[in-house]
């Protein structure tokens, strides 16, 4: 993606990253338990993308660019996605979901 567009359209590249790449990266993560090191590794991939887009190695600049572009840290995005998933899971009428509703409620409450 970056090789085709280059540095001439950074807003377009960031939007493509947010709309096409990050959903693929996030796909299914709300269902999986992840360690802090795994979350850090995934966040590192996003930081590298921003580093290339804005041609910088400074973590402060990368953090500022992510803030301006409304690209939250992975841990924050993942927490929101997990809350949404668990909320739907807890309120589901599916018999299989009802079996584990207590465990899901405990996990939901721990995220608050």
Report the biggest beta sheet as strand number plus sense, adding barrel if it closes: none
Helix content: over 70%
The count of DSSP E runs of length 2 or more, i.e. the number of strands, is 0
Average residue pLDDT: 87
Unreliable stretches (pLDDT < 50, length at least 5) are none
Number of domains: 1
Distance between the termini: 37 Å
Estimate the strand proportion: under 5%
Give the overall silhouette: elongated
**Structural class by helix and strand composition:** mainly alpha
Rg, Cα atoms, Å: 17 Å
With helices defined by DSSP (H or I, 4 residues minimum), what is the helix count? Answer: 7
| N-to-C series of helices and strands | HHHHHHH
Describe the structure.
- This protein is mostly helical and 112 residues long.
- The protein has one domain (2-111).
- The chain has helices at 2-5, 10-26, 36-53, 59-68, 74-91, 95-99, 101-111.
- The radius of gyration is 17 Å and the shape is elongated.
